[in-house]
Design goal:
- The complex is a heterodimer of chains A (about 600) and B (about 400).
- Chain A is α/β, with parallel strands linked by helices and about 600 residues long.
- Chain A has 23 helices and 11 strands.
- Chain A folds into 2 domains: about 80 residues, no CATH class; about 400 residues, TIM Barrel (Alpha-Beta Barrel), CATH 3.20.20.240.
- With about 400 residues, chain B is of the alpha/beta class.
- Chain B folds into 2 domains: about 140 residues, Cobalamin-binding domain (Rossmann fold, 3-Layer(aba) Sandwich), CATH 3.40.50.280; about 240 residues, P-loop containing nucleotide triphosphate hydrolases (Rossmann fold, 3-Layer(aba) Sandwich).
- Chain B contains 13 helices and 13 strands.
- In chain B, α12 links the parallel β12 and β13.
- In chain B, α2 packs across α3, α3 packs parallel to α4 and α6 runs antiparallel to α9.
- The chains are: A alpha/beta (about 600), B alpha/beta (about 400).
- Chains A and B meet through α6 and α19 of A and α1 and α3 of B.
Amino acid sequence: MSKLGQVVEAVEKYNGFVLNQVKRARSDEKFGRELSDRWTEIKSKTPVTHTPTGLPLPRLALPEIDEPGEIARYLFGEGLPGEFPFLNGAYREMYLEPVREIETGSYGKKTSSDGAKEKASGNGVQRLEEPTRLFSGLMLAEDTNERFHYLTQHQRTHRLSTAFDGPTLYGIDSDADGVFGKIGEGGVAIDTVEDMVRLYDGFDLGSPNFSASMTISGPAPIIMAMYIAAAKRRFGPKVVPKLRGTIQADIFKEVQAQNETIFPIEASLRFLTDMVEFTTHEMPRWYPISISGYHIGEAGSTPVQQAAYTLSNGFAYAEMFAARGIPIDQFGPRLSFFLDCGLDVEYIALARVSRRIWAIGMRDAFGAGPRGQLFKLHTQTSGRSLIAAEFKNNLTRTAAELMLAYMNATNSCHSNSADEPFTTPSEEWIRLAAHGQAILLEESGIFKHTMNMLSGSPGMKAVERAVERAVLDEFREIERLGGVLAAVEDRYQRSQIQNAAHRYEEQIYEGTRPIIGLNRYRNGSDDIPEVKLARTPRKKQQLQVDRLAKFKKKNAEKAKRALDKLVDVVERGENCFPTLIEAVEVCSLGQITGRLQEVVGRFRPMV
Amino acid sequence: MAAPIRILTAVPICDGHDSAINTINLEFIRHGIEVIYLGYHRSVGDIVRAAIQEDVRAIGISSYNGGHVEFFAEVLSQLRKRGANYIKVFGGGGGTITHDDAVAMKRKGVDTIFFAGTSLMEMTDYVRKHYGKPRKRTAAKLSDMELARKLTEIEEAYAKGKRRPAKQIRNPQSAIRNSNVIGFTGPGGAGKTTLIDELVLRFLSHDPKGRIAILSHDPSVIGEGALLGDRATMINSQDDRVFMRSMATRGQAGGLSPATHDCLALLAQSNFDYVIIETVGTGQEAMPFQQNGIVDETVLVMNPDYGSRLQLQKIVMLDLADIVVVNKSDLQRARTAHTEIEQRLGQNRRGQRLIDTVAKRHRDPGVDQLFALIAGNLSRRVGMTADLSC
């Protein structure tokens, strides 16, 4: 049985354990009394908060139960926020207004809110890390750098999120055949370590107030090596352990949904594990992988498929890293997740259920400690749910999705702009999207006074049970196919996603899935926003190509030696990541990709 | 009956958005169009080469990742450079291609751009209306182009019901042959395409100047379209030294098309070191290379999952193939399969070779062995013919 099978067993066993505890609480008087006492204590210790109108409310809402069996069902089956199995939240407090900061008036000063806090200290008062993490990347490194500085000019903490252009995402150079027009489009062009130095110029990469996120998977280890090399160039080797940030590096979802894979799957996973082994030892504050369901959801999966494939991918990574000998309690806390949130009713509890399954699986099937059990989640509202027809309705769609995302106690969140069906979002609509979150979290009282404000309705519980059952069924099917890797190679997830996408389109076409303004209440006249496109000028694209040529010429001799050494290490089967950090000093991204492909092959697309 | 329209579809380099084109491809083939699908993340060079070799009427490009104005222009410019601007270009990209972009692209020679909201029916109608009739073409500038057009003539003649139409083919049984012809057959899903692509990779690095031709087949019903998708996974075969042609069987059973024999003969008489022919996935009774007398070496590619031992007795190609390959030999059943097939071949006493491969694995030793065996067998055979002709 693979680990996934053990996870299924662990969840079933845990559910059985909860039922036993319920029975025991009812039959074992002593145990029942202990639970009742604990319940009373929790309630009495819950601080009281006051709404702006003066109404007192508990900061933690709990169900009105006093029967020991029901108390057991709640405490073991769901757990308080921040307690195993984390159904109600990975942390306590989360979005609550911190009492002291209200008094000093510092909370609420920020002009745009793009998400919730990633961390809560747990003792009531928080050091806020600003939640804003705006995804950005355009033209050349210096242009994106300028944008980064503009975005963070009024912020205490600098949380940058980097989008890369097509050639970079596919690990090729800006001088490759036919990519000229794609240089700097949709993201920043990075060919060399020199570009990476320019990209984060002026930011203190070793500061605890700085973190960089990089959205790239296929060539992630090479880009990560460039980031480390660039940091060393600027701050010396001692900066490495201080580096904070996230790199996506999710190969499974690329093969299942997003198609940005450059090496064969097994080689990709090996390079990933090399990188994770290095960062876990040398960069304890780095998140070396963001296990992403978002792209699976956007490619058309059902919500259950999204949760099931994301979780099973996560367990497969954990199994792989553990097999390399990386201690689970070292890498476990460095795994993070990224989910889509659409309008289907499953989203009422999708992340809640995912958090519970992850915690039980990591604890009972992998033996992870408390920090390795946490499903740390970033959510993005669904881009696919937005449509061009009567596009202003997209504001409402996103608002409803935000509500669902926060009802799931996501750790951070990105809200999409209403103009996304047409273009890369423009400033006007980005602002509205960000303010949607601020209105929900700061202006409205829904989430800021009381934890658990909306958790636990009978409907939500019904969705939780149905989703958990369906996710476990998917796990069983994947297990039957021989585990995640075998299922991926068999195109299982890919076919399921494509089939679901097709059904979704058919439902829209037949009208059984209402889309307002498209197949229902259509007014016929579509308004189109004024689209101002930011295209990369030819001159800049040429500049990137010229710089690359200069870099290659300057390093020609050294590059050859560095690549030979890299190949040597790869062939010997050793961890190639340290050698990769050396290689990027003198080799371009495309040179490294090309040479590695000679050794391990190229990814063969699945059609 | 007129031959089906053949078009090529692809997604540009650095772009993995293949969901729209997958849907559109299916709609096209439902309406009788043969679609050669090149896949996503494809360079201009790959697209233009494939369009010329497949001799398509038009190229449809689905672009969602920006840079489309330049990319489409580059496709047109390369077509012109090769004297192939009789091949037309159209495309789309949802909301990413603006109306202004489309104007600029049309000015550079793109026929049309489909915007978000265009129905599948509109696209199909457009293709049938604009690319339904063959276009006048200037004299072929390149030998690949000339060859490609001759193959089209053969296919179209058969579609109109003629037999033996091609004057340009010398007697196919003639001993004057320039190429070694290798036939690959076997059940669907055994991995023939991947295996051939891996052999091509070895050939290209083994012989720095040699050329290779591939005639690949996918099934279709008379009067209907077909999805010819082998190029999308044959990443190593998209190379200037590889001439590849994808054919639909157009209603013929047995794994090949009515025009295959003549097309293969033409390729065998052209200047290739090897000609590889791949059948569609075949059944137990199939013997696709029996009647044509052109194939020098036959390879049966099997999956370890063929069912019971008794099934092996029914597979005719096990009697006829020169080489039998058990691909996917990393599967649990592979050892049993090897033993059972070895015994089955032993009954024939013909010295047939049995090789285990894992074609999906880079540098698989089994594929190396197969390559060495094919190359060795054929060089012996060529030597023998030379002796006889003296």
